[in-house]
Amino acid sequence: MKILRSFRKRKLSIQNLFFKYILLSNMNYVKSNNKKIHLNWEENQKKINKILSEIKVSGESFADVSLILNRNIPKLAWCVKIAESSININYGSGVVCHSKGIVEGVWQGEFNNFDYVNSEHIFGSGLTVENKKLIITPPSHMYECIFLIKNKVVNEVIISNSLAYCLSFFKNDIKNEDEIFEDIRKNNDKQTKLGVFGFEPLIYEHDSFNLFALYYHNFSISPTGVELESRLHEKNYANFESYKNFLEDTLSSLIKNGESQNRVKQLKNFSTLSKGYDSPAVTCLLKDVADFDCATINVEVNGLNDSGLEIAEKLGINCISCEHPVGSSIQNLGDIEYSTDLAELSNDFFATQGLGDDSVFLSFDKHLDDKIIFTGALGDTIWGATSQPPNGIPVRVLYGKSLTEYRLKKGFAHIPVPTIGAIFPISIYRLNFLSDMKPYSIKGNYNRPIARRIVESAGVPRGMFATEKNATNPHITNTEKLKKRAFYEVFKDYDFK
Q: Which of the four, 115, 211, 281, 364, has the lowest number of CB atoms within 10 Å?
């Protein structure tokens, strides 16, 4: 058996070397690989549209479209109710209402053009109203989505950027069902693992309604039904500099959008910072393109302190030290039971499609209002050198999917920077093995040459960051027990005019 395992390991190593040789020597291989992704996606797109085509709305609905400012709901929340003869749209005080529709967050491109439908990246969500057609634009990542509910009892469709807002219309129908929230979470996890090329939109069936999750792509709603309108922007990077320049240009465009003087409320920039790879890399990218606030969590996990204060000092930036909501010293993040008090503070995180682990953002609570938050989420997948990243920026871990309600209340946009330009990731992965990246590659599984080069080139010495893998998001053992109560508390935040 040992000989067989050794043979298999050696065979795999030879295959990897051959693959890397092909990858390095021929950019046409990258383009050919991406072409196959396009072809496979066309087939899955047909399957998705077949599922969505069953959602019908009345043509008479579009004769009466009303947009209503609702100051009673979270500032970035919005909801569409399509009835038999009307369409009513409620939106919070932080949502931008314009001649074409509504939008929250930031997108790549001029703010005044409101062309988020065609933008390469949007971090937030939007709704565009055309003649007898609505176009829904979800965020450009898989951590969040737009929810759509088809009422089975009456001819009615509910659409929102908040799962809680959607479900609040059916709170009496589901009040005796304890498993529904956990079932939705599990089904959402299955879809986020498949990424923007592989997901299926139907995530829950109830006697009273069907619940759909709309990820990444635009979705049009008209009397002929609901249809996915593909948003694919293929990017190939010849070398590290071209990739870094693309990231910086995109960040600059997003920041300019958020700072537009035509906004009622300009959005300031905020970066989180730890001792790992990804948030230091994001912070170093930001340092070259914008002014921003920065904060770190001063916490010891399993005896390791993850504070980024030393890195911030080396970069010459001010960094606020914050305390983890669980405490300053945590023995085991994988086994945390939330107390009643902490659970009540975390209702907004449990009342989502996620586990509630993003309650770690409570560490920064005083600093997040009306900001653009830049994080290194998905950096382990996109910037890792030990295995080829999967296509379509899937989120294959359970964590990071519980930020939405809190985000909508605080009024911030979340930009997981590694997801930018990464839905076709093989071009990024290829960069790890170019000759000029060798000085930034280290032995072992914790190897991310792209992130390391960004950080070390900014003046942070090796040994000050990314020495050991660490985390700050807790695995909360009583999530399932806390979810129902949290949802019914958050339902109180929503009404519809």
A: 115
278-287 vs 240-258: helix crossing angle, rounded to 10: 70
46-232: CATH topology is Glutamine Phosphoribosylpyrophosphate, subunit 1, domain 1 (3.60.20)
Nearest to 34 by CA among 434, 450, 421, 427: 427
What's the Rg (C-alpha) of the chain? 23
> How many Å apart are CA 252 and CA 51, to the nearest integer?
38
55: region left, alpha or beta (phi > 0 left; psi from -120 to 50 alpha): beta
What average pLDDT values come out for the chain (497 residues) when binned by 10 residues?
A: 51 52 64 85 94 91 94 98 96 96 98 97 96 95 98 96 98 95 97 97 97 98 94 92 98 98 95 96 96 94 88 97 89 86 97 97 97 97 95 96 98 98 96 95 94 98 88 87 97 97
Q: What is the pTM of this model?
A: 0.94
| 376/274 Cα distance (integer angstroms) | 10
Write the CB contacts of 190 (distance below 8 Å, at least 6 apart in sequence): 203
- Interaxial angle between packed helices 278-287 and 449-457, expressed in degrees from 0 to 180 and rounded to the nearest 10: 40
Secondary structure (DSSP) of 432-485? TTSGGGGGG--SSS---HHHHHHHHHTTPPTTSS-SS-------BTTHHHHHHH
Predicted pLDDT at 99: 93
Find out whether 349 and 246 touch, Cβ atoms under 8 Å. Answer: no
